[in-house]
Each structure stands twice: as C-alpha cells, then as structure tokens.
Design goal:
There is one protein chain. The protein is mainly alpha-helical. Helix content is 65%, strand content 5%. The protein has 16 helices and four strands. It has a four-stranded mixed beta sheet, sandwiched between helices.
Length: 426
C-alpha cells in the first residue's frame, strides 16, 4: 500500500508541478462551457424572447394582404420587415433573414373566392434559409392562422369581401356545384349580405375566424417559476469532454515513459502490473474528478447553476465518470504505439464520443435512430446523468443507471488494458 500511495502522489506532484498547465487544464473547460452556455442558456423570466427575422413582400396591396402583413408585424415571435422581392431573396441568401413571405398579385381576390368556392387556391411563396428549416416551419404555422383571420374578417364585412360575396352569388348557378350545396351556400351568402346591411359587417378589430385556442407555456424544471439554466448542460458537456482529454494525456504520459524505458525498469522492481496501472488509474481519477468539481463550482458561483437533484446522485455520477475517463486513458496507452500518432487518433475518438454523447448540443436534437445508437457511448450517460442531477432535479434513482453503465465501461476498458498492455515498445 505504501508503494501504491507513493506512485499516486508522484503522479499528482508531476501534474501540479507545471503551474501553467494546471491553470490551462482548469480554465479552458470553464471558458468553453461558458461560451456554449451563453448560446443555449434558454429564456429567463424577464428576458425578451429571440425573434425570427422575416421579410414580407406584399405584391398584392389588397385589404386582405395588408391585414396579413399587419398581423405578422404584431406577432411577438417574429421580427418582420417589408421588402422588395429581390432584396428579400438576397437577405435570405446572405443569412440575415430566416424566411421571406411573398404575397403575390391577386392573392386577396383569389383567397376570397376560394373561401366560399372550390376554386384554385392562390400560392404564398415562402423563401427560406435551408439551415433554418425549423424556423420556416414555425413561420408557416403562424402564417396560416393570420391568413385565415384576415380572409375571414374581410369576407364578413370588408369592402373587398362584399364585392366578392356579390360576385360569388352571381356565379353560383354556373359553378357546377350540386344543387343542395348551391342552396346552402346561397343561404349563407344572403345571410352575410344581410349582416353587412344591418350592422355594417363585423366590428373593427374583431376577426371572424381565429385560432380556437391559446397556448399556456410552463417550463417543467426542478423548481417552479425558475427558467432553464443552459449553463448546467454546457458545463456537464464540456466537463466530460475535457475529462476525456485529460485521460488522453494520462495515456500519453505512459507511452512516453515506455518509450524512455521506464516501464521496463518498473518491471524489474517488486511492483506488479496491476499495481502500476491501478496507481495511474487512481491518480487520473483524482485529477479528472478535481477538474469536474472545479468547473461546476465555478458554474454554481458565477452562473447560479444548482444541483437541484440528489447531491449523492451527483457525486456518484461524477466519480463514476472520472473512473471511466481514467480507464479510457489507460486503454489509450495499452493499444497505442507512439505518443504522437496515438494522440491524434485518441483526440478524434474523443471528439466523436462527446459529439454523439450530447456534450456540444443536447442529444434530443439528434434524429431518433441516432439517439438510440448513442446509448452505447459512455459520454451520453455521463452528460445525461449530470443533467438529471442538476437542472432536471431528478431523484437519486435517476443516477443509478448512468453510474452502473459508466462503471461497466470502466471495467471493460480496464480488462482490455490488462490484456493488451506491453512493458516495452514492440
């Protein structure tokens, strides 16, 4: 045991002996996590929501199209500006605008006729940035509601609507509709005419057709009336990423020592391979756990990240994640040849691991098939476990499975290390 402790202390002294490396090891994950957190921090209770930039091209200039433009401009989720067609196209192409809505000439008349008859429906051209397809879908849904309100309001009381009602009545007999449907539509149109004569149509500001519901949004987090803190996820993701990078440096240290013949000398000493590798795994676990604790301590103090779940569960996830990372570093040393070549391959492997594990962006953004595949990646369990114990506020039971899975990966990495580790260069 004295030899084991001495080996662990030796590794820790070597690490903390280089002050510049120590500062960078702790500062870099904090800086990058802070940057990602500022992007995905979510909306606080007193902050203004981000608006989708939308350009509207009104080529019709009718009462209906003007009503649509006015409704879009009042929508709190959109930042609307009117533009010419060419300027709108260039703005979308340059990425300044997510969506451009083009209302063509004759849209108001065509939409009014299609409102009561089975005539051809007019097109609304939507130009969108292909990298922002999700925003395009949102704008399309909002546009549908505003168009229905504008057309309904105009058809039941507007000047343009009155003329279209009269025109529809005149053309009803030649429309080709079944007699029963023509009679029903004629009665409806006569009722609309009577409404316009007796009351002057629908009162201003009262649309006939509206979306028949409102949305009450409630963010479900650990604490009521507290907005999602994106810094919790970013520090979890970047913490896991730099834990694995630190583990790579652990493996590189072993490879360099083997190239210098140090491990050959260790073999001549009364030290078993299991003790040597165990001591290096222990020191690696201590260092990576310390990095994770320092990162989250900074997030708690500066960005008000809270461990809203089980504190014991957070400790279990953090410790198991550090053990897994240290075992991964030993595996890198066991299967690597030279330090230079191994570092490149291991760095690439870590980047793929953390990317698919949801460390950069939450895994729910991935396609369903990819979310299933990433369950075999330890970084996914680490990030999800830390999320569960911080902003999700889940109980201790939610930390059990991530802990078991990561310890399972640590055992797997350790077994592979013992079977593949070489005392000397091949």
């Amino acid at each position: 045991m004295a030899a084991f402790i001495a080996l662990v202390c030796k590794d820790l002294q070597l690490f903390f002996g280089d002050r510049r490396a120590v500062v960078l090891s702790f500062a870099i994950p904090i800086v990058i996590a802070s940057f990602f957190g500022s992007i995905f921090k979510g909306q606080s209770n007193d902050s203004e929501p981000a608006k989708i930039p939308v350009a509207v091209v009104d080529q019709d200039s009718s009462a209906i199209s003007s009503e649509i433009v006015a409704a879009l401009q009042l929508d709190k989720a959109l930042a609307v500006h009117t533009s010419s067609l060419e300027d709108a196209r260039q703005s979308v192409r340059a990425g300044r605008t997510a969506v451009a809505v083009v209302i063509p000439t004759g849209f108001g008349d065509a939409a009014g006729r299609a409102f009561f008859q089975r005539t051809a429906r007019p097109n609304v051209d939507v130009l969108f940035d292909p990298s922002r397809a999700a925003e395009m879908s949102m704008v399309r849904g909002m546009l549908t509601g505003h168009v229905m309100e504008a057309v309904g309001k105009e058809m039941f009381g507007g000047t343009q609507g009155r003329s279209l009602v009269d025109e529809t009545l005149r053309e009803l007999d030649s429309s080709g509709m079944p007699q029963a449907q023509r009679d029903l539509l004629r009665n409806l149109l006569h009722s609309v005419q009577e409404l316009n004569k007796t009351t002057g149509g629908v009162p201003a500001g009262q649309p006939v057709m509206t979306v028949p519901y409102t949305v009450k949004e409630s963010a479900v987090t650990a604490r009521e009336n507290v907005a999602y803190n994106g810094y919790a996820h970013s520090f979890a993701g970047m913490g896991v990423q730099f834990l694995l990078f630190t583990a790579i440096e652990l493996g590189m240290g072993i490879l360099l020592e083997r190239e210098r013949g140090l491990w050959k000398r260790f073999r001549s000493a009364p030290l078993s391979r299991l003790m040597l590798l165990g001591a290096r795994a222990t020191s690696g676990t201590i260092l990576t756990l310390l990095m994770l604790v320092v990162s989250f301590s900074f997030a708690i103090v500066v960005f008000r990240v809270r461990i809203d779940g089980s504190l014991l569960g957070f400790a279990l996830v953090a410790v198991s994640c550090s053990i897994m990372a240290a075992a991964f570093g030993l595996l890198v040393a066991a299967i690597g040849n030279t330090a230079a070549a191994t570092r490149r391959v291991a760095t690439f492997a870590v980047l793929i691991m953390v990317m698919l594990g949801g460390a950069w962006v939450p895994s729910f953004i991935f396609p369903a098939w990819l979310q299933t595949i990433t369950l075999v990646i330890p970084a996914r369990w680490a990030v999800d476990g830390l999320d569960a114990m911080t902003w999700r506020g889940l109980p201790l039971q939610s930390a059990v499975m991530p802990t078991i899975v990561m310890l399972g990966f640590a055992v797997l990495f350790g077994a592979l290390t013992l079977s593949r580790f070489r005392w000397e260069e091949s």
